[in-house]
Amino acid sequence: MMFKNSVKLLCSNFDKVWKLLVFHILSFALCAALLCVFFDYFARAFDTAFTDSTLNQMVESGTLYGSKLADGLTAVVDFIIIFMQAVFINVGIGIYFVLILFIVLPLLLNTGKIVICEMMYGYMSSCQKQSFTGTYLKTLRTSLVYSITKLFYSIPFNALIALSLWGLTRIQNDAFDYIMPLAIVIVPALLMAFKETFNAGWAPAQVVYNQNIFKSYAIGMRAVLRRGARVFSNAFIIFLLALVLSVVLGLYAIIIILPIISPLFHIFEMVMFFSSQGMRFYADADTIITPKRLEEVDRIEDAKYII
Asked: Which pLDDT belongs to residue 259?
C-alpha cells in the first residue's frame, strides 16, 4: 500500500516533479559553471579517459546480452578511474573538482528534499498547495543543517555501493558475464534499499516535528522500524524497477527515470512516516487514507513512545 499510495500522490502532485527537476538542473548548472574555470584541463582529462577506457567503442543503448553489458559496465568504471587519475595530476585542481562534485552538488540537491517534504506535508495534511520558491526560502536554514549532516552520514553507504560496483566489474570470468546483468541490478538495488531504510524517516520527522537534526533522526528511525520490512521491500522494488529499465533501455531511459525517481522517494518517505505514525492524509483531493492508529502498530515495549 505504501508504494501504491506513493504513486497516487506522485500523480496528484506531478507539478512538484517539474519544480524539483528545474531546481536540480539549476544546481547542476551552477556546479558546471564553477567547474568551467578549469574547462580545458577537465576536457583533456575526459578525452584521455574516454579513449583509454574504450568507452568510445560501447553502444549507448542498454542490453541484457551478457558479455556486451559486462564490457560496457567495465568500460564505464575504467573511465571514471582513469578520469580521476588524470584530474589529480594537478592535486589542487583535483581537490577543487571533488569539492564541487561531491560536496557542493549533494548539498544543493539535499536542500530540495526538505522543500518537497514540506510541500507534501502541506498537501497530505490539509490538501494545501505551496510555492517551491517560498517554501525553499522558508526552510533554507533547516535544509542546510540537514544537508550538511546527511552528506557526512551518507559517506559509508555511498562508499559501499561504489565499492560493490567496482568489485563486480573486476571479476574476470566468461561465465560471470552472463550473470552480470542480474548481479548489476540486484546488488546495487539491495544496497540502496538498505541505505534508504536508514534514511527514510529522517526528513519527514524533521518537517513534521520540527526538532533538531539528531532528535528528528531518532523519531524517524522509530517510525521506520515499525514497518522496517515493508520500507526495505518497497524501496528495493522501486530501485529494482529503475535499474532494470535503465539496463534494458539504456541512456535514454535514465534521462526519463532520474527526474521521477527522486520526487517519488521523497513522497514515499512521507507516506511511510504518516502511515507509521497513524496519521491520516490526502492521497488526492477526493481520497483520504486512514492508516492504523499508532497504538495498533506499536509493540508493548514501544508504548512509552506514544506520548
From this structure: 80
